[in-house]
Amino acid sequence: MPTLATTTTVCNLMTVFFSLSSFYFSSPFPVTCLTSSVLTLSAISCDRYMAIMFPLRSRVTKKRTDAVIAAIWVCSLVISTPFFLFRRLQTLYWSDYTETNCLEAWPSTTIYSAEAGRCVKQHTFKRVYYTFVSTTLFFAPVLIMLMVGRRQCRL
What we know:
Number of domains: 1
Structural class: alpha+beta
Low-confidence stretches: none
Largest sheet: 2 strands, antiparallel
CATH architecture: Up-down Bundle
Strand content: 15-25%
Mean pLDDT: 78
Helix content: 55-70%
CATH class: Mainly Alpha
Number of helices: 4
CATH superfamily: Rhodopsin 7-helix transmembrane proteins
């Protein structure tokens, strides 16, 4: 699976190009690239595990490899979809300068908090999304790679 170097190079070029050129693509592309890199490393780890633990089994075919790569990119695009949807352009006008920023605008609900003694905004979808992404893109791959590495060291 020699796609990690290609993925990293393409992602870096796309990130620079789209970050400089478009408001809507400045945040989703780095997230897509990060996700594809993490998932590609996990796939490489699993492939190496199978090659070491079961050396006489048939190797991964080109068709399967293409399917894994396609699944990695589809998952990466799906995971970065909220950054396409929840974007807002904010323009601040100063006396001698106009500042334009791209902000995340997640859906929120406002409720009264007795502890704070005031109304507070809750970003439930944002919290669920970031918890899911942290778990699937950091904790799960690290756990997979640790388990694979530990099993290979027992040989």
